[in-house]
């Protein structure tokens, strides 16, 4: 009986960690998307419109899953085209400056 309870607890904890990880991927993807839009000088929508879009995106997220690969692709684009690190929160002047000052591409590196 105790073993079964322990297995269930571990399973639950594992599922919770995976959900948290998936949410972090989506949150970081959205931040990266916004940063990319700004760096590409695209029009920044006003706050109210952005909130409405975010609500719509959350509904769409249930249908369209954002993967770790999607996040990695947008992070690489920010780094390679704009020398920008989402997790450092700054744009470097050169790729050399980015490489020497940024601890890595992933959130865990920071």
TrEMBL record:
SMART domains: DUF4187 (SM01173). Signal peptide: none annotated. InterPro entries: DUF4187, GPATCH11. Residues 51-66 have a biased composition (Acidic residues). Residues 56-110 form the DUF4187 domain. Pfam families: DUF4187 (PF13821). GO terms for cellular component: kinetochore. Residues 45-66 are annotated as: Disordered. This is DUF4187 domain-containing protein. It comes from Sesamum alatum.
């Amino acid at each position: 009986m105790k073993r079964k309870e322990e297995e269930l607890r571990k399973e639950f904890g594992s599922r919770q960690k995976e959900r948290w990880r998936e949410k972090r991927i989506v949150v970081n993807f959205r931040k990266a998307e916004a940063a990319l839009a700004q760096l590409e000088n695209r029009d920044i929508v006003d706050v109210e419109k952005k909130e409405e879009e975010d609500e719509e995106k959350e509904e769409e997220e249930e249908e369209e899953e954002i993967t770790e690969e999607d996040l990695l692709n947008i992070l690489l684009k920010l780094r390679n085209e704009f020398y920008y690190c989402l997790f450092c929160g700054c744009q470097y002047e050169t790729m050399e400056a980015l490489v020497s000052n940024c601890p890595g591409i992933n959130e865990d590196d920071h």
